[in-house]
């Protein structure tokens, strides 16, 4: 029997968010116990020779939280504050997320405690290859398939894929997703997370009978997820009026020229200094806090976890909050937002475009049959919209908030798989 004190605090907190779902669902109580502890946690030191000749040792983790529905799946995060607990929590949410959109995967996640911005390109390559050397024995196409996350991109995935091949002395493209197309990556993976989030928002607006043209969006985070979300949202007729990165935010009520702003950011590495020349209209500089409190229709959070907490939830004036990042709304802020009438579209549904296209990449690698960008886009849209539709209907029929409905959709599928494996042979709800 798992003791409460054995359960990592982050998982106790995660499970508290699921209380309502477990109460409502007639699944075996053992499911909750099974989801209390990670299946496997691997911690490794990565020694790296720096360009100046010194040696630095980076801490890293790979966690496979649950593998009942299939091999582990989840990205690798490079961040100076990443911790064992954070990776455990993220791997837990990956298990729920893959089940919400019915991918044949469990949940996993990885992390390296490193500040990418302080590394040269060669140092970044050595850290990436070092991570794969440390984890090569615990990942694999049928075991655990890493992919990109914060501060890791196709460059990093490509080096890791190559390192795995060198270690195993064979070509195994299906071991990792988010690779460059030249190495078996899928067309459309780079934009997929943002694209998928825009599709969920579009469907939600349609159900609310709102015209996209009347909807103004502020976005926190202008990296992979945030930038491609902005592009897709504009294509679908929404207006992006504000964007933020870690250096600050810019705002223009008539709408921003996001590609021009992104080009500036890529050149200078920050939003600071975006001026009127970069944009169709004059832009105003804001702080991140001001962006979160803007009077817009949609606040899209595409940066980090815990951006809206009990301390700033009261300042949110947007009607809809789109969670593109993982865990951007802290548990204690949820009831406050509900009370204020803010609808939260939850991360475990909204940001699944990325992992869906990662799944398609894995399928393409395994069949050696490669799809066009249009095929990828069409299949991803169909899948994310149909699973979002199911979730929205569940919320309506069961009178649940959207987060609880998404959790219910995911947990039910995990519980069914646990049951089918015979783990709960003795369980009979009748
Ligand atoms: N990439 C993917 O496929 C997926 C990503 N996600 C989630 O989406 C989120 C973003 O990931 P991704 O886009 O890949 O990461 P990136 O590293 O590409 O981008 C992160 C962005 O957030 C900004 N940022 C960081 N801290 C802050 C802050 N305190 N305030 C405002 N902006 C900030 C960064 O600013 P700066 O550029 O200045 O550093 C950057 O623009 C993460 O939670 C990730 O887990 C979820 C599913 C899939
Ligand atoms: O494509 C992947 O496997 C990464 C997905 C991921 O890490 C996420 O959805 O948070």
UniProtKB/TrEMBL annotation:
A GO MF term: glutamate dehydrogenase (NADP+) activity
A biological-process GO annotation: L-glutamate catabolic process
Organism from which the protein derives: Aliidiomarina haloalkalitolerans
Protein name in UniProt: Glutamate dehydrogenase
Family per record: Belongs to the Glu/Leu/Phe/Val dehydrogenases family.
Domain of life: Bacteria
Domain Glutamate/phenylalanine/leucine/valine/L-tryptophan dehydrogenase C-terminal: 186-422
Xref: CDD domains: NAD_bind_1_Glu_DH
Purpose: Catalyzes the reversible oxidative deamination of glutamate to alpha-ketoglutarate and ammonia.
UniProt: substrate binding residues: 73, 97, 358
Important for catalysis (site feature) positions: 149
SMART domains: ELFV_dehydrog
One Pfam short name: ELFV_dehydrog_N
Binding site for NAD(+): 193, 224
Reaction(s) the record says it catalyses: L-glutamate + NADP(+) + H2O = 2-oxoglutarate + NH4(+) + NADPH + H(+)
Active-site annotation: 109 (proton donor)
Entry keywords, A to Z: NAD, Nucleotide-binding, Oxidoreductase
């Amino acid at each position: 029997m798992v003791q409460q004190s054995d359960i990592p605090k982050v998982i106790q907190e995660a499970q508290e968010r699921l209380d309502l779902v477990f109460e409502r669902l007639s699944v075996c109580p053992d499911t909750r116990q099974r989801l209390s502890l990670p299946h496997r946690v691997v911690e490794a030191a990565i020694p790296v020779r720096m360009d100046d000749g010194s040696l630095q040792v980076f801490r890293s983790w790979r966690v496979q939280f649950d593998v009942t529905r299939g091999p582990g799946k989840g990205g690798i995060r490079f961040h100076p504050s990443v911790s064992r607990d954070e990776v455990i929590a993220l791997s837990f949410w990956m298990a729920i997320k893959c089940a919400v959109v019915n991918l044949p995967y469990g949940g996993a996640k990885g992390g390296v405690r490193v500040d990418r911005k302080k590394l040269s390109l060669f140092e970044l390559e050595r850290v990436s290859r070092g991570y794969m050397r440390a984890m090569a024995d615990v990942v694999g196409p049928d075991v655990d398939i890493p992919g990109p996350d914060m501060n890791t991109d196709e460059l990093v995935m490509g080096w890791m894929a190559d390192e795995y091949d060198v270690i195993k002395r064979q070509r195994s493209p299906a071991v990792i997703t988010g690779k460059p197309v030249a190495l078996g990556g899928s067309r459309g993976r780079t934009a997929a997370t943002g694209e998928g989030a825009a599709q969920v928002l579009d469907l939600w607006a349609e159900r609310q009978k709102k015209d996209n043209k009347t909807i103004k969006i502020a976005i926190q985070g202008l990296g992979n997820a945030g930038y491609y979300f902005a592009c897709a949202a504009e294509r679908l007729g929404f207006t992006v009026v504000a964007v933020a990165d870690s250096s600050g935010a810019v705002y223009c009520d008539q709408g921003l020229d996001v590609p021009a702003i992104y080009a500036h950011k890529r050149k200078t590495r920050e939003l600071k200094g975006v001026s009127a020349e970069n944009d169709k209209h004059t832009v105003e500089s804001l702080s991140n806090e001001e962006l979160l409190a803007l009077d817009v229709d949609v606040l899209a959070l595409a940066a980090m976890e815990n951006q809206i907490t009990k301390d700033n939830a009261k300042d949110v004036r947007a009607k809809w909050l789109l969670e593109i990042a993982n865990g951007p709304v802290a548990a204690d802020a949820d009831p406050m937002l509900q009370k204020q009438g803010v609808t939260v579209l939850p991360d475990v549904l909204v940001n699944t475009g990325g992992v869906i296209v990662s799944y398609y990449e894995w399928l393409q690698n395994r069949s050696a049959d490669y799809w066009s960008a249009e095929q990828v886009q069409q299949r991803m849209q169909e899948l994310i919209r149909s699973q979002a539709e199911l979730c929205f209907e569940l919320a309506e029929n069961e009178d649940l908030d959207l987060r609880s409905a998404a959790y219910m959709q995911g947990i039910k599928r995990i519980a069914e798989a646990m049951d089918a494996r015979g783990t709960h042979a003795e369980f009979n709800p009748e």
